[in-house]
């Protein structure tokens, strides 16, 4: 319900912008710039480049706002522009696109709060970094940004079932790693909140 109200507020602001109220776009920027910056930073690994891409994304969003029809949330529409802009920036700097596979992705705050041992956080992060790009993106957008699978599918430009499948495969790979490692099992048993959190994540796609 809260998400629905938030989306309605975005749509109302967009209609005001389309009617010529530029201040309403400033409110949209204020509302989404932090999340967009985190997303861009995961791709670019540079604060300066991420800030440039965030600015570029909002400029593009403003210029294309007339094409936004509200069939998706403004947030997912904006994030899709941000992802594409970040990828373009990587190409401009002549990065091998395989480097995207190695982008350091942060684990969600809700998960980090349950990590008692820093070593466990490092191990989990290492395993997340080794996931294929699409699985890593789906997992991060779901866990860190708390986006719906519909929004994730829009950002990744893929069918709903594909987004959900990538997320599920990522979770299953992580669970397999945890279950096959005695060290990780011991950590997980000591940090029951992490275990509960991963079980809850797994249940939503089973």
Task: Write a structural description.
- This protein has 206 residues and is mainly alpha-helical.
- It folds into 2 domains: 2-101, Rna Polymerase Sigma Factor, Chain: A (Orthogonal Bundle), CATH 1.10.1740; 106-203, Orthogonal Bundle (Arc Repressor Mutant, subunit A), CATH 1.10.10.
- Helices cover 75% and strands 0% of the residues.
- It contains 11 helices and no strands.
- It has helices at 2-18, 22-44, 47-64, 74-92, 109-112, 118-129, 133-143, 149-156, 160-180, 182-190, 192-203.
- It is globular and about 60 Å long.
- It starts with a helix and ends with a helix.
Q: What are the defining features of this structure?
A:
mainly alpha, 206 residues, single chain, 2 domains, Arc Repressor Mutant, subunit A
- What global shape is seen? globular
CATH architecture grouping of the largest domain: Orthogonal Bundle
- Here the CATH topology of the largest domain equals Rna Polymerase Sigma Factor, Chain: A
Mean pLDDT across all amino acids: 75
Major beta-sheet overview: none
The fraction of residues in strands falls at: under 5%
First CA to last CA: what distance? Answer: 24 Å
CATH superfamily descriptor of the largest domain: RNA polymerase sigma factor, region 2, helix turn helix motif
- The chain-level structural class is mainly alpha
Number of strands: 0
Helicity, as a percent range: over 70%
Low-confidence stretches: 96-119
Rg from C-alpha positions?
18 Å
CATH class of the largest domain: Mainly Alpha
* Helix segment tally: 11
Our count of domains comes out at: 2
Query: H/E order of the elements?
Result: HHHHHHHHHHH
């Amino acid at each position: 319900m809260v998400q629905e109200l938030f989306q309605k507020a975005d749509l109302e602001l967009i209609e005001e912008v389309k009617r010529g109220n530029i201040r309403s776009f400033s409110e949209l920027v204020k509302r989404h710039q932090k999340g967009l910056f985190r997303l861009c930073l995961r791709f670019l690994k540079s604060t300066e480049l991420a800030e440039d891409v965030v600015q570029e994304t909002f400029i593009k969003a403003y210029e294309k706002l007339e094409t936004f029809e509200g069939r998706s949330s403004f947030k997912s529409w904006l994030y899709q522009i941000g992802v594409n802009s970040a990828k373009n920036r990587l190409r401009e700097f002549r990065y091998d696109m395989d480097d995207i596979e190695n982008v350091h992705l942060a684990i969600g705050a809700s998960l980090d709060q349950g990590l008692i041992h820093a070593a466990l956080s490092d191990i989990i992060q290492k395993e997340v970094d080794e996931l294929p790009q699409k699985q890593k993106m789906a997992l991060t957008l779901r866990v860190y940004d708390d986006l719906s699978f519909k929004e994730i599918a829009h950002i990744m430009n893929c069918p709903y079932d594909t987004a959900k499948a990538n997320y599920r495969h990522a979770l299953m790979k992580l669970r397999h790693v945890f279950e096959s490692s005695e060290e990780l099992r011991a950590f997980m048993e000591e940090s029951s909140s992490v275990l509960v959190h991963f079980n809850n994540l797994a249940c939503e796609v089973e």
